[in-house]
Amino acid sequence: KQEVTQIPAALSVPEGENLVLNCSFTDSAIYNLQWFRQDPGKGLTSLLLIQSSQREQTSGRLNASLDKSSGRSTLYIAASQPGDSATYLCAVKAAGNKLTFGGGTRVLVKP
Amino acid sequence: DAGVIQSPRHEVTEMGQEVTLRCKPISGHDYLFWYRQTMMRGLELLIYFNNNVPIDDSGMPEDRFSAKMPNASFSTLKIQPSEPRDSAVYFCASSSADDRSEAFFGQGTRLTVV
Fold it and tell me: Phi then psi for A82, rounded to 5 degrees?
């Protein structure tokens, strides 16, 4: 059974510092990995999608890497801003098109 | 496309009442998923459909929960009778049949059972 873990569960950084969020998964037989952002009381917004054949994806200040063999992905957010405060979730897609989610990392960027 | 649409956004009901949550997936998507999010357990997959057929309902917590997808553009998740421990945010998501495709989520329904 696929298990997805995100460490740390919470992170607080001063504005301008780079953020590093970690995601690990136990079964490397995945199709892709998706990073989401969730604001309090809101739905999930997709940030980046990395296919299993890719090593990284970039969108603006966001960069996500994937090492499928070791079961790890890292989301980097450069030059963090208070508006980046949210919960970040990773999810892996495997057989049956099912997404398995990690517990999320709650990020606070202090001005 | 307007994305995945869920209704209602908020639902408050009394214990024992029937609750029906609704979802309209993105047009053309073959897969529809129902998730539940709680502080204690995070996001859990309850059930998913492929081409309107339930594929895996192993995440449905009890017989009180049931889900249907009568056509490609509509699905319901029903709880009967509801209990306070069912209080959570319920999300619907859809994706295309392509293994590489992205999943899109609705805004969720916040259910409170008192």
Answer: -55, -30
